[in-house]
Amino acid sequence: MIGFTYQNDELFCEDLAVNEIVEKVGSPAYIYSKKAFLDRYNMLQQAFSAIVDTTVCYSVKCCSNINILRELAQAGCGFDIVSGGELFRVIKAGGDPSKVAFAGVAKTDVEIKYALEQGIMLFNVESEQELENINRLAGEMGKVAPVALRINPDVDAKTHAKTTTGKKENKFGIEFAYAMQVVSRLSSFKNVVLKGIDVHIGSPVNSTEPYAEAVDRVLNFIKTCPDTIEYVDTGGGFGLLYNEENVPAFEEYAKVIAGPVKAAGKKLIIEPGRSIAGNAGILVGEVQYVKKTGVKTFYKIDAGMNDLIRPAMYDAYHFIWPVKSEEMPDCKLFPEVEGDGLLMPADVVGPICESSDVFCKGRLLPELERGDKIAIFSAGAYGFAMSSSYNSHPRSCEVLVDGSEYKVIRKRETWEDLVAAEEL
Ligand SMILES: *Cc1c(COP(=O)(O)O)cnc(C)c1O
Fold first, then answer.
1. CATH architecture of 4-33+280-419
2. What's the gap in Å between 381 CA and the centre of ligand 1?
3. Which of 159, 225, 332, 359 is 20 to 30 A from 390, comparing alpha carbons?
4. Which CATH class, in words, describes the domain spanning 34-277?
């Protein structure tokens, strides 16, 4: 179901051996399964639509290649964007602007005008000043902007401090008390119409309670709002299986979110990113050197924190296993194989000159040699999208697999690309 399987001691993406792809495209490489993206989108759409009218807006920021956006758009998916650049990607990919929700804490005039021109579904507004500004710009363009207020529900999503967004000390959203004042002044804004209330509490949220709490607070608040409100937007943040954690099924999230929204007679917008893209992609690197010290074994690979920053930035766990191995992985990501073999503790590290450029420490792995390829799993979300060329490592390529075929959907950068925008 994640698009990746071990068969005959070797990792496959759909019907293709990962090793063979990387022999052709080089290392490091991001490899995605088209089927995994579409399956996850369809599962979410079905789980929520079974209960209430739902627009799934894929969160572009988590994995924004236009080839992937195009596949999702063709499947009927909408998009959650956080910048004008992301809207540009959506339009390029053939996405439908009338299914686009625009979040973003500091939208510029240029971005707002572009979104008004394109006719997006909803601006998720983060402050009264922003509302005034959208009202002004829409007025100048002779338009009425559909807006939702992004509420900060002061709910603890119990996730990493760097990825919680719905506590009152976070920069996101408007407090309830203040939102009430904004709503009471709405009639003075002639060029906006209040279409929704929006919350996004953080990510990943591996339980349903924080959503239940946030939805309850939002629906109570909506009772005090004008009846122009059609939508409740509950954001993204659904959990993802990285290792052994218990992640609620989509149906369980749907029950606590879609149920109450349906009862309140509203339509639902959800903004999933990680839960669609996360397990649909891996990052493959090649062992350059093995270093054994008195106390440790280091596998130094060609992929680094510039390719995948999550371990360095969020202390994130990624399951790691060789692309070819006689030992089998013991991880919930591969329920079909039984873990076995002789394992040794090792650190997998990248080439970047930062002590935080470490993918795992003391991890039990099969013995690896120079030239072996290893896969870092669950890298589809916030992987390539957060990559950089720090240390002047050209960014890796992205490959999309569809059955027994693959396509390079982003070329590997070259040394020339590194300096192309710099003038001497
Ligand atoms: C990042 C973000 C999302 C997506 O979060 P995931 O954890 O990837 O599902 C959704 N909505 C907003 C406003 C975001 O900033």
1. Beta Barrel (2.40)
2. 11
3. 159
4. alpha beta
